[in-house]
Design goal:
Distance between the termini of chain B: 34 Å
Mean pLDDT of chain B: 94
Number of strands of chain B: 8
Number of helices of chain B: 0
Helix content of chain A: 10-25%
Number of domains of chain A: 1
Low-confidence stretches of chain B: none
Helix content of chain B: under 10%
Radius of gyration of chain B: 16 Å
Largest sheet of chain B: 5 strands, mixed
CATH superfamily of chain A: SoxY domain
Oligomer: heterodimer
Strand content of chain A: 35-45%
CATH class of chain A: Mainly Beta
């Protein structure tokens, strides 16, 4: 009996097996929205129209401690008259389980195109806001943020 | 019954742009969380919000699980006449929560 063995000793093979198991757990988590699924959701919203940058201002904190409640404000530089107003504003995310966040319907009676809410973020990611104006054009703004404690899928 | 908090100015001048804030207590269960037994907690969110001013729709929203628990919304409208501003939240089961506020416009 030259080989020493005890309960504390773990073979290299066992460690590798445990590692593979942990990897399988990570893979088995629910599917998450990816930049591609966000692109698909955006396409469903705008159709074939072009999206231009500008007009829209998306306000989000750059660094978020708690992803469970993140203040979000969207402003659109529009006179909000009967001839020229914002019809809809959609907000999309890249890395939550679903790409949609919210869709707001406005009318000229709003006076100002300004909407605020609070959102959940499962990870550090890009958020995109797209506004559809009454003339049929789409305008967008993007914000990147870092989340230190994401809204957990697990708990 | 869910508890709602609403902020509408009691008085406004005709033509003023007023800010309206609405919050309702609701867990906004995403459907992606697991419960203590390891099973997924079924999705239960408020998916629609509608605000009317004397019966005419002035703002509405489609909400998704990415909206935080106790959904908060703030938006603006032009004070046109005295009357009632009504709020309606609809959840996944089709149940609606109603709240109203009075505004005096001079």
């Amino acid at each position: 009996m030259s080989r020493k063995s005890g309960p504390v000793e773990t073979s290299r093979r066992e460690i590798l097996a445990a590692g593979a198991g942990a990897l399988a757990l990570v893979i088995a988590r629910p599917a998450r929205a990816t930049p591609e699924s966000m692109a698909a959701a955006i396409k469903a919203f705008v159709g074939e129209a072009d999206i231009r940058e500008g007009m829209v201002t998306l306000e989000l904190p750059a660094l978020v401690e708690n992803g469970n409640s993140v203040p979000l404000t969207v402003k659109v530089d529009s006179p909000m008259t009967a001839q020229d107003y914002v019809k809809r504003i959609a907000v999309f995310n890249e890395r939550n389980p679903q790409p949609n966040v919210a869709l707001f319907y406005l009318s000229p009676r709003a006076g100002r195109a300004l909407v605020s809410t609070r959102i959940r973020l499962g990870d550090s990611q890009n958020i995109v806001a797209i506004a559809q104006l009454s003339d049929g054009t789409f305008w967008s703004d993007k914000a990147e943020l870092v989340v230190t404690l994401p809204a957990c899928v697990e708990s | 019954m869910a508890r709602a908090l609403i902020n509408v100015p009691a008085k406004a001048k005709r033509g003023d742009i007023i800010e309206i804030k609405a919050l309702i207590s609701h867990p906004m269960e995403t459907g992606y969380r697991t419960g203590p037994d390891g099973a997924l907690v079924p999705r239960d969110i408020i998916n629609r919000f509608i605000c009317t001013y004397n019966g005419e729709e002035i703002f509405s929203a489609d909400l998704f699980p990415a909206i935080a628990a106790n959904p908060f919304l703030s938006f603006t409208t032009t004070a046109t006449e005295s009357g009632r501003i009504a709020f309606r939240w609809i959840d996944d089961r089709g149940q609606a929560y109603l709240e109203t506020a009075e505004i005096a416009v001079e």
